Amino acid sequence: TRSQAEQACSNDYNSYKKMYTIVLQALVDHDGYFCDVFSGVPGSVNDRRVFRMSGLGKTLAVIALSVGSVGKFVLADNRYNLHVFMLVGHGTTLDAAECAANDMIDKTRYVVENAFGRLKSRFRRLKYLEL
Known about the structure:
The chain is an alpha+beta fold. It is built from 5 helices and 4 strands; from the N terminus they run H-H-E-E-H-H-E-E-H. The chain has helices at 4-8, 10-13, 47-53, 55-67, 96-122, and strands spanning 22-28, 34-42, 74-76, 86-88. The strands form 2 sheets. The protein has a two-stranded antiparallel sheet. A two-stranded parallel sheet has the order 3-4. The radius of gyration is 17 Å and the shape is globular. The mean pLDDT is 79.
């Protein structure tokens, strides 16, 4: 059965996979610790817009406007836009340097994937939560 919330706003919360979803955006540091979490946005909203809506996105945009790059970057996949504070992979590689950059970003993303794996294993009972 569908929950009342799911019935009321089902079109908004349907993802591209036609499943009822809520977006969770998280920032993970190089040690695999969660530094920032933003959630509650309907699954139909794309990742770029979720980032712009989040406190992290707003804060980084203000910092970038006032001081420019501070030497630290957020790594993201190519569903996000390139900013002075964000590195994204190259969609199509043109030369060896871009290929090497993509490899480095992919290797670093394993830290993020492992952090989410730990989170899912720790809270696996939430999968069966009835709303």
